[in-house]
Structure prediction request, 325 residues.
Amino acid sequence: MTTRRQLAGLIAAAALPLARPALAQSARIAEGPIRLVVPFPPGGPNDLVARVLGQKLGAILERNVVVENRSGAGGVIGTDNVVKAAPDGRSLCLTSAGAIAISPVLGAPMPFDVAKDVAPITLVALMPELLAVPPSLPVNSVAELVDYAKKNPGKVNYGSSGIGSMPHLAGEAFRAAAGIDITHVPYRGAAPAVTDLIAGQVQMMFADMPAMMSQVQGNALRPIALASGERSPLLPQTPTMAEAGVPVVADNWYGLVASSKVPAPIQALLQEAAARALRDPDLVKAYAEQGARPVGGSQAEFRDFIVKESARWGEVGRRANIRMD
Prediction:
């Protein structure tokens, strides 16, 4: 029979947080802080995702994780800095689709070979692309946008954050799937493109959700659809492109990578720590507030994902004759 004292002890024990399982002890990262390179400017979606991840990784690895912004060439410069760093496990990059899955297959000059030089650690998060229009455009749905574009061939311009960016490719995938004649207008980043979208200088745009959410919430932009496999809790009334009748999926994504020269046991240690961080309730909540979905997963799964994304967007680029050389 359980005594009252024993029962009280069991209740108290159940109220305590579960002890964290120890990380694999087969590898040790060199002493010192860990750099988490963001290959884009501060304040963007990639940067926000990295800073939350870095905080959690630091707690798990019991190290100081320093976020370092090294922007340029659509994420290639910062990624290159990490894959050529000392292979001691202290240099990581939260790279994106553009740097390791899109640029290489669209002819961009690459200072590294993704297959040989990059060690995929884990897929960190998916970030849906939101299709929005200015209030001045007389459309409220994908069907109305397609109809408007067909009635005004060549007169609908869509903005993007640059040639070969995910917003550019999402726009091209939409153009092909809907059979419409729309014109691409590239910008140097999402911010100036969104500014011109609000002003009606361009008539539509796909972008990472955080790049347009404040404007949507302030009614400066009208959300039309999400180029994702599921709706977002942030915009529950906004349908997916597939639900709207044009099946375009264009989730941007962020992944943790290192140099391929980092010893395999250290890569495994980093993957284990990142996977644990991505299950943290605080991180999940913080990502959800940005519209992002944490993923995690094995190194092999991330490697296969990169290969599939390269093939998919390479085909879109070839059909649209997009070249980044």
In short: The longest strand covers residues 118-127. The chain has twelve helices and eleven strands. The first helix runs from residue 4 to 15.
